[in-house]
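Bumping with the actual sequence this time:
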Amino acid sequence: MIVEGKTFFLRLLGTKIIVGCLVIAMSSQTSLSYADGSDETMEALFNLSFEELLNTKVETATKTPQELKLSPAVITVVTAKDIVHSGYQNVAEILSHVVGFVDNDDLSQHNFGVRGINSGVRSGSRTLKVMINSQPVSFRSTSQNFLGNELIPMDLVDRVEIVRGPVSALYGANAFLGVVNIITKKSDFFQKEGGAVKTTVESYQHQSGGYQAELSGGGFTTKLDYIYGVSQGSFDRSGVQLPRNSPSYDAIRSDPDRSVQAVSDDSKPFSAYAQLGWDIDTQQKIEFNGHFQRLDVENPFSELNPLSVFGTTREAIDNYFLRVNYHYSFSETYQLRLFAAYADGQNNKNDKQEVGAENFFLKPDIGYHSEDFGAELFISLRQNDTLLLGLDSKNDHQRLESFTRVDRNTGQRNTITEPQSINISNKGFYLQYLWQLNSNWRVNLGYRMDDDSIIGQQESVRFGVVGNLPHEMVLKLLFGSSFQAPSPELLFRKSVQSGDIIGNPELNAQKAQTTELSLSMPIADKLNMTTTLFHTEVNDLVTFQSDGSNLLANNLSASKTNGLELELRMLFGSLDAYMNYSYQKNALEQNPLSLFVLEHRERGELFPKQTANLGFYYHWEPLKLSWSWNNRWVDSRPASTSNVLLTNQFYSLGSYMKSDMTFSTTHFSLVKGKQGTLSLSIKDLFNSEYVNPGFGGIEFPSLGRHGVLSYQQRF
């Protein structure tokens, strides 16, 4: 381990020397300028006062701008400042430090659970509704959300608004246990600060690494405004070892057709986003925006035929949307919003599924295209009261997953399952009333009715009371219901090999009800604390039963979760710090049709009882040098049911603490008058080598300690 650590830091030092030489070489052609007054605008943006931080305007909870502390939801906001200071590389890193969220990363997809509930094998964070500027971005064939580097160029992100709890009364299906809304920067930011080019290199302990390149920009004229961003990466994680506590470790080690380390494991994430706005006149505006993401990653630790020496399963999916928004302001009282969107997603030519065979592999074919439409009328009533009336519809045309057998040597293809398709439609009506009772108290009432062609009518409600108490305290009492529609994969999937998921067309929607009590208060001059108690009940919970060969999806369980969440935020001069802690106790009803005693998991699976995060940021102005230290602690987690059945005993994965440290400076720039930022991050500083719960005899490894070196130049 000592030798590995020395090798890692020598390689990291070598990378720094190379980059330094490149900078010197560039400076021989381009005069090197040191930061001066040109940074004032950026510093003004990043140095919000404590009061401004608490009063940040958010819109996800009500679709109208409201102060964070008064918004009728339990919501966390991560700003562009937080992203830069903490060295976050993608949205998944952000969410992993948010209270109540726990990632079960298999190194191909992030799978977040929320408040005690994780949807299990291959769920891909489908308990969340993830949006960019309120447009959903899930791959609708599976309802998975791709949250890594393939989601969005990070320089475009102004803030991420994270709502814990149900929001189906506004957003319909899949705003189940939480909503993540990524709000992009405005064009005036890029007009003032300029666009940016960013290059990032990563170095891993096991003699591999990768890079990420990003371009972003924007601006405006009298009538037009625009932003754009594109990001491309390439990472090689080959050599990552299968954790020794995996139930199938000994069997894989003794199998000549398998290896206990990833022989091949590369990832090539790509994302792009653009937005164009046109002010038609003082009353009308039209916006066009588009988003494209490509998940292209090998998955050697798949629960199906992992770590084969013949080839590695690869997940390769293209997913995009095009959307147009129209805003019309009749008067200060009435405002109309219309939108139309087209979404499309499908696996691309790189997608393949290994079956452990020397001579062939399987080629999946799956995809969808969809048309979405919506209209919203905002009515301003007396004082601060507002009424929102909304209609929306979506029409999904699903191409159900089929498989072709491909010969490795000849490329000959043979159809295994015939292609099938199905149309799924949904129409929704919703209303929301924000009622200002008096100067200190306000009420939020919300209702939505959805009519889905598969699961029928679904009702969702929201009720919230927010009050200003003495001594700047804010009290929130909230109740809401939500539902999650079963994905086409869970409804109609056909198994082509042992261990695979078999769909169930009789699945019902999963339904949740959550009650929350939240109190926010200052406990010192520059220190604020928020405490939240919650109770969540989930009915018709989808669980997977084993028939001894495959996994069957059924609505055969219910759960009750009680929890506590604590958040602290301090901003004192050049020091910015946060801490959060969550505790949850989950009680899962026994599945009456279970064939195995070990399938009864009273605590559920994958999710810990406790988590905590602690972070510090400090800025030293004379050298324009910044330092941040982010720590995540995760309690022990119950192993997956599939692995419990394999070992024939209950067991848990151990707790861990992961520390990330980042140093950055804006002391010099390659472009006079524009900011340059050099940053060095050490991820998993103490090399915790933590293990995430896996499936099918596999536990998921982590990357261990690795370095991330980046330089961003504005122009």
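The tokens above came from a reply further down the thread. Confidence is low (pLDDT under 50) at residues 1-31, 37-46.
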